[in-house]
Specification:
With 103 residues, the protein is mainly alpha-helical. 84% of the residues lie in helices and 5% in strands. It has four helices and two strands, in the order H-H-H-E-E-H. A hairpin with a 2-residue loop joins strand 1 and strand 2 (57-58). It is elongated, with a radius of gyration of 22 Å.
Length: 103
């Protein structure tokens, strides 16, 4: 049996929670700013958005297409980092689970 109350109070868990928050919130803010920049530029930076970059491809279309790449890149970064967080969580559970098993 695992003592989750003891885990919650442990330094290891607090460090894990802190590092997870320090990772998740900036990634969320980056995507949110990137996402909101598109309609703002469409409304207030029309000369930039209608500028042709390649042939008939404008900056606005190019920026819109990059949403897919940015979303997949951020998701990939999250998956790699989440595996490390999961490993740390498993180690913490294993450490505090062993103490109760002998009881």
């Amino acid at each position: 049996m695992v003592d989750f109350k003891k885990i919650e109070k442990s330094t290891e868990f607090q460090n894990l929670k802190r590092s997870k928050n320090l990772f998740i919130w900036p990634i969320t803010a980056i995507f949110f700013c990137y996402y909101l920049a598109f309609p703002l530029m469409a409304g207030y930076a029309k000369p930039l958005m209608v500028k042709f970059v390649f042939g008939n491809l404008t900056f606005g279309y190019l920026y819109g297409l990059t949403f897919y790449f940015v979303a997949w890149a951020l998701a990939g970064i999250y998956v790699v980092k989440a595996k490390k967080f999961d490993k740390q969580a498993d180690e913490i559970i294993e450490k505090y689970g062993e103490e109760k098993e002998g009881a």
